[in-house]
Design goal:
Layout (H helix, E strand, L loop, with lengths): L1 E6 L4 E8 L2 E9 L1 H5 L6 H23 L8 E7 L3 H18 L3 E5 H12 L7 E6 L4 E8 L2 E6 L6 H11 L6 H9 L24 H11 L9 H27 L3 E5 L6 H14 L2 E3 L11 H12 L27
Bound molecules: 5'-O-[(R)-(carboxyoxy)(hydroxy)phosphoryl]adenosine and zinc ion.
Length: 340
């Protein structure tokens, strides 16, 4: 089955063609340079840019896959979770394509897309498993019981982990997005240089909180001349604090559910320190750990097409009144599978 995926939930305009688990094209028009000067995503600017780019991005997905419109069997689109003005652009384009081509339309929750970024990369990921989605907009622990059946175990109570990277980067004058800038500087720093808090590290809940960690860094160094700041040491210590919390909560969650595997997805899962520490900690606990291909960690449409294909297989489809829902909880999407 050839599925056209469309993703516009934040600042990436993306379209992809996926055929039975094989990615034929994965086109992403990033707006990062545009938002960098504001130090973060400006929602109205994002939606206007999606309107400009969406037609070209979809066409490029067909051209680079060497496929024609009439070969498509279904259209999957991120319709839940994200910036509403951005979501609307993708949903409208997907409806137009599905209507014109007379093929099924399927709306996908953005977090389900991230869960499928890993499944697409590692089809052998065992079920059930625990998935951590960690990006600029989310830090969410999900018990993936079956494909399409989820229980949210924990969420961030304030900033997402990627957002904390972005804010600290801005504070240190390192630019946007912050994750790559901090990771690169941290390679030259000492991760034990500063004793930073590990928020909710000892709590029994699976929720996260990163705003206190961010405030600790700011309070420690505010008012100081930037030239005098030990930037690599701050970057390394901050990165380590975030990674420690992510690793310990995810392992706690895996232990609690008795699963044999975890997957880590989303933009922050590109981070090498995070990958190394997860691999080491999971190895000690006898857990398998899976990460998506690097180009599927950040927002993309191949993951949406893959999630769409799984739901369509269970006979689920959306109608042409499909709407954009910015805050839909993951559990609200229900389970499409007959087995559940
Ligand atoms: O998944 P994504 O593209 O968008 C959201 O859904 O939010 O993730 C973007 C986030 C940004 O906050 C960015 O700073 C972070 O992922 N990120 C990283 C790295 N690369 C991107 N964080 C830590 N280390 C990285 N190498
Ligand atoms: Zn995302």
């Amino acid at each position: 089955m050839l599925v056209l995926g469309i993703e516009t939930s934040c600042d990436e305009t993306a379209a992809a063609l996926v055929a039975d688990g094989t990615i034929l094209s994965n086109v992403i028009a990033s707006q990062i340079d545009l938002h960098a000067r504001f130090g973060g995503i400006v929602p109205e600017v994002a939606s206007r840019k999606h309107v400009e780019a969406i037609g070209y991005v979809i066409q490029e997905a067909f051209d680079s896959a060497g496929k024609t419109h009439t070969e498509v069997d279904a259209v999957a689109v991120t319709s839940k979770y994200g910036l509403v003005g951005s979501l609307i652009v993708g949903v409208s384009a997907a409806k137009a394509m599905a209507y014109a081509l007379k093929v099924p339309l399927i709306g996908i929750h953005h977090i389900e897309g991230h869960i499928f970024a890993n499944i697409l990369s590692n089809p052998g990921t065992p079920l059930p498993h625990v998935c951590l989605t960690v990006s600029g907009g989310h830090t969410m622990l999900v018990h993936v019981k079956e494909l399409c059946q989820y229980e949210v175990m924990g969420n961030t109570l304030d900033d997402a982990a990627g957002e904390a990277f972005d804010k600290i980067s801005k504070f240190l004058g390192l630019g946007f997005p912050g994750g790559p800038a901090i990771e690169s500087l941290a390679t030259q720093g000492n991760r034990a240089a500063f004793n930073l808090p590990r928020p909710l590290g000892r709590s029994r809940s699976f929720d996260f909180s990163f705003s206190g960690l961010k405030t600790s860094v700011v309070n420690m160094f505010k008012g100081r001349d930037r030239e005098t700041l030990p930037l690599p040491d701050i970057a390394a210590s901050f990165q380590q604090a975030v990674v420690d919390v992510l690793v310990s909560k995810t392992l706690q969650a895996a232990l609690h559910k008795g699963v044999s595997a975890v997957s880590i997805t989303g933009g922050v899962s590109i981070n090498s320190r995070l990958r190394e520490d997860f691999s080491a900690a999971c190895g000690r606990q006898g857990l398998q750990v899976f990460f998506p291909r690097r180009d599927l960690c950040t927002d993309n449409a191949a993951m949406v097409a893959a999630a769409g294909a799984a739901r369509l297989k269970y006979g689920e489809m959306s109608q042409l009144d499909l709407n954009a829902i910015p805050n839909a909880p993951l559990e609200s999407i229900g389970c499409a599978g007959k087995h559940c």
